[in-house]
Amino acid sequence: QVQLQESGPGLVKPSETLSLTCSISGGSITNYYWSWIRQPPGKGLEWIGFISNSGGTNHNPALKSRVTISVDTSKSQLSLKLSSVTAADTAVYFCARRGPDYSEYYFDYWGQGTLLTVSS
Amino acid sequence: DIQMTQSPSSLSASVGDRVTISCRASQSIGRSLHWYQQKPGMAPKLLIYVASSLHRGVPSRFSGSGSGTDFTLTITSLQPEDFATYYCQQSYSTPITFGQGTRLEI
Fold it and tell me: Could you tell me which of A100, A116, A120, A119 has the C-alpha nearest to residue A36?
């Protein structure tokens, strides 16, 4: 059974760079696309971006160029870096796996999420 | 960006009821529409993919339909564990976008 587990600092100061990690177990990391999705408290879901099985990335233009997504296959870890954070980046951050149907992009496995608060 | 609009935003129902949640896309997305269930404090769970395919392990009381711009999630014979928030998501083009959610309450 595939399991995803996010981890992060919990609290980041404005203008700093947040770094989150998603540890993946129970399945291959190299055969799938992986995404980050976030959810501000009490609000809906926002897709942040994905990394493909070949290492290519695509991110939400709403986040401009603040997003960096990478994979460390040796550690079976997915990473997210978001620079120049503001209070608007306060959210629960989820990592998720793209389903096996490569003609569509839906999320079949999710981590439990990690809350990141931006505050001085 | 493709905007996804769900209706209603909230819905009150009772155990045993049949409920329908709608999702409308701002442009045609074919059948690239997926549905999730989220309970408080938990991650979303995939229910339906590609408009009408039931994800493994999801009870058959859940069903999806639609194509183009209009889609529907139907839950027949509501169970206590079905009270949650439901989201639709389009994958026709990036950025991937979600509906604002429909809260299903007792």
Answer: A116
